Amino acid sequence: MADPQRRALAQPLLRALILLGAPGAGKGTQAREVARLYDVPHLSTGDMFREHVAKGTELGRRAKPIMESGKLVPDEIVLAMVEERVARKDCAAGFVLDGFPRTLPQAERLEEILACLPLRRALAVNLLVDDEAVVRRIAARRICNSCGAIYSAGEKMPRVEGKCDVCGGQVVQRPDDREDVVRQRLATYHEQTRPVTEFYRRRGQLLELDGSRDIASVQHELLALLARLHEQ
User: Fold this and answer.
1) Which end of the chain is more exposed for a tag (fewer CB within 10 A), N or C?
2) Structural domain boundaries of the chain?
3) At what angle do helices 45-55 and 75-86 cross, to 10 degrees?
């Protein structure tokens, strides 16, 4: 294990680590790996929605028809799910939030929720990737529709065309990964999320990393930053 990893992982996370970035910036990949290394939960609102719907909770019953209609779930429901999830025992040593908050009202309410937890001040890390690079990266992406394994056209593809190396499921391009859809997603992202990054910047809680590099390089720098914060 590299030295920054050893130093970063020598202490528990004890904070909410918020991974921000455009679609395709790699925040999900980094969030999963950091959560694994620290042995803390990797939290995404999509997983929370699915869990509540599957369990038939009150929040799940409220969210299900909205999700099925293709509309955005209101902040009231999203934030109630987040508040319930981060209060669980497995979040006591910290957790990694993947792509949330997405809007300024979500960020403001999240800070109120986190202020009630016995954790260090939250840290937001914004992964910066040029829009054209994002378009190329996502348009090349292929995903197993069974286990979610990710492949990339021209780079890492399944050994057997169209068949996942991990589970044997079908590897496809998602409809929202088409170039025209990606450009629209980017426009929405910039409109909604710029106020979020500025919110954390004003509060001194924002770090920015070059997310255009390979996964290992980004992870190395992220862990080095966390190590330095532990040492302060």
Assistant:
1) C
2) 3-40+93-131+185-231
3) 90
Residues contacting 226, CB < 8 A, separation 6+: 8, 13, 17
**Is CATH 3.40.220.10 the right assignment for the domain spanning 3-40+93-131+185-231?**
no
d(CA 132, CA 140): 12
Under a CB-based contact definition with an 8 Å cutoff, are residues 210 and 133 in contact?
no
Which residues contact residue 116 at a Cβ distance below 8 angstroms, ignoring those fewer than 6 apart? none
- Which tokens belong to 36? 């694994």
Distance, in Å, from the CA atom of 229 to the CA atom of 206, rounded to the nearest integer, reads: 12
Query: What are the distances in angstroms from CA 149 to CA 2, 142, 163, 170?
Result: 26, 8, 11, 10
- Give, as one character, the DSSP assignment of residue 93: T
142/158 Cα distance (integer angstroms): 10
178 phi/psi in degrees, rounded to 5: -70, 150
**Over the stretch 15-57, which tens digit does the pLDDT of each residue have?**
999 999 988 888 988 999 999 999 999 999 888 998 999 999 9
Element (H, E) at 5: helix 3-9
For the chain, the average pLDDT equals: 89
CA distance 156 to 208: 27
Give the pLDDT of residue 5. 66
Helix (H) or strand (E) holding 19: strand 16-21
User: Which residues carry out catalysis?
Assistant: 27, 102, 141, 174, 185
